[in-house]
Design goal:
Length: 368
C-alpha cells in the first residue's frame, strides 16, 4: 500500500519562543528550551501543550515535551493541529531524522540557522494514525534501549571519578596528607608535537593525534588523521610510546590521555605534549591531571599567561600528590577493568544506535 506525503505546515501550528537566553533562572521549576541540547530552567511559562521543539540555530537539535514550558526566540514550537491525522511522537521521530536535512539547508556564517519555510515545506510520510502509533512505539523501545546503554556508560565514568576521590581524597585539598611534588621531578621526557605536518597527511600510515583525540583522561579515536612522516629526529621525538601521558597545551587546555599498549605507531601535533613519567603510574598521573586538582592548577597558569597555552616550565611546575605506589597500582587495575567494561558498553551502544537509525530510515520509507 502506497503512503502519501503531506506538508508539515498543513498539519501543524508553528511558532517561535519570545525570550532571550539570559531570561533563564537556575532555580526555576519549568523547562526553558533554547538551542542547547539540554533545557535550562525558568520560573514562568508561556506554553502548556504537547510540542516538538526544534532549535533554530546552532546545533539544530529536536526535542519532545508535554506540559508547561518557555522557549528561546530562535526555538521553533511545533504543535499538531489535528491529532486524528498526526501523532506527535511520530512527528518527533520524523523531525529527529529530518534535522539532518535541515543542517544541509541551514544558512548563515559562523552560526547557521533555519527559516520557518524549511519546516513548513518539509514533506512527511502520512500513514493512517494507528500505523503512525505503531511506528512510534517501535522507535520508542529502540530509543529506550539506546538511552539506557548511554546512561550505563555515564554511570561507569561517574564510578571512576568517585573511586578516585575515595582512594586518594580531594586533589584540591589533599585531606589524606600525601606527599606533593612538582611533575618536573618525575619526568624523564617532555616534548610537544610537530607543526606543519599537513604535507605528510595520507590515507594510511601512522596515526597523527590531534587535540580532538584527547578527552578527560581518555583517548578518542573516532576522528583520526594519518601521516607518512620522514625518517628524522623530529619524527622520532614526536612518536608516542606505551604509557605516555598526553596533555593538551594550547586551545582547550588540560585534556589528558594514556597511550595504550595496542596503539599503532602514532605521532602528536603541536597542540599536545608527551609526558613520560618514572616512578609514577601513568594512569594515576593522567587521572590526577584530569581531576579538579590538576585542572585548577592548569587554569591558574593559563590565567597568568598572555594567551591560552602552557610552556614546558608551566608543565614541570604542576604539583601532583603522590600516594603509595601500591595504591596507584590498585587504581590502575580498577581503571583498566572498568574501561574493559566501558568498551563493551560502547560497542553495544554503537550497535544500538545503528539499529535505531536503521529502524528510523525504514519507518519513513514505509518498510518497517
Amino acid at each position: 500500500m502506497s503512503i502519501s506525503n503531506a506538508l508539515i505546515g498543513n498539519l501543524t501550528k508553528i511558532r517561535t519562543g519570545k525570550l532571550d537566553a539570559n531570561a533563564a533562572d537556575p532555580a526555576g521549576k519549568y523547562p526553558f528550551f533554547t538551542c542547547a541540547q539540554e533545557p535550562l530552567a525558568i520560573n514562568r511559562y508561556a506554553y502548556d501543550c504537547d510540542a516538538i521543539l526544534v532549535a533554530g540555530n546552532g546545533d539544530l537539535n529536536v526535542k519532545h515535551y508535554k506540559g508547561k514550558f518557555e522557549a528561546y526566540q530562535r526555538t521553533y514550537i511545533i504543535k499538531v493541529a489535528n491529532e486524528s491525522k498526526l501523532d506527535s511522537r511520530y512527528l518527533y521521530y520524523f523531525m529527529s531524522k529530518y534535522v539532518e536535512k535541515l543542517r544541509e539547508l541551514s544558512i548563515g556564517g559562523v552560526i547557521k540557522y533555519i527559516k520557518l519555510g524549511m519546516l513548513t515545506d518539509a514533506e512527511i510520510p502520512l500513514p493512517l494514525l494507528p500505523e503512525q502509533k505503531r511506528i512510534a512505539a517501535i522507535l520508542d523501545k529502540a530509543d529506550a534501549i539506546r538511552r539506557k546503554r548511554q546512561a550505563a556508560i555515564k554511570l561507569a565514568d561517574e564510578f571512576l571519578r568517585a573511586t578516585f576521590l575515595d582512594m586518594f581524597g580531594d586533589p584540591v585539598t589533599n585531606p589524606k596528607g600525601w606527599e606533593v611534588k612538582p611533575i618536573g621531578e618525575m619526568l624523564t621526557f617532555l616534548t610537544s608535537g610537530s607543526r606543519g605536518w599537513a604535507k605528510f597527511y595520507s590515507n594510511d600510515g601512522a596515526l597523527f593525534l590531534r587535540i580532538q583525540n584527547i578527552g578527560k583522561n581518555e583517548l578518542i579515536l573516532e576522528d583520526v588523521a594519518f601521516v607518512n612522516p620522514p625518517e628524522s629526529a623530529e619524527a622520532r621525538r614526536t612518536r608516542v610510546m606505551e604509557g605516555d601521558v598526553l596533555l593538551s597545551i594550547t586551545a582547550d587546555l588540560g585534556r589528558t590521555a594514556i597511550i595504550p599498549k595496542e596503539l599503532p605507531v602514532a605521532h602528536i601535533n603541536q597542540h599536545l605534549a608527551i609526558l613520560r613519567f618514572k616512578g609514577v603510574e601513568p594512569l594515576y598521573s593522567s587521572a590526577f591531571l584530569a581531576s579538579p586538582g590538576g585542572q585548577e592548577q592548569i587554569k591558574k597558569l593559563n590565567r597568568e599567561g598572555v594567551k591560552a597555552g602552557l610552556n614546558f616550565d608551566n608543565v614541570r611546575s604542576l604539583e601532583m600528590m603522590l600516594p603509595p605506589e601500591l595504591l596507584q597500582k590498585k587504581w590502575t587495575y580498577i581503571y583498566e577493568k572498568k574501561m574493559q567494561q566501558n568498551r563493551l558498553l560502547q560497542n553495544a551502544s554503537g550497535w544500538d544506535t545503528t539499529l535505531f537509525n536503521s529502524l528510523t530510515q525504514r519507518a519513513f520509507r514505509g518498510k518497517l
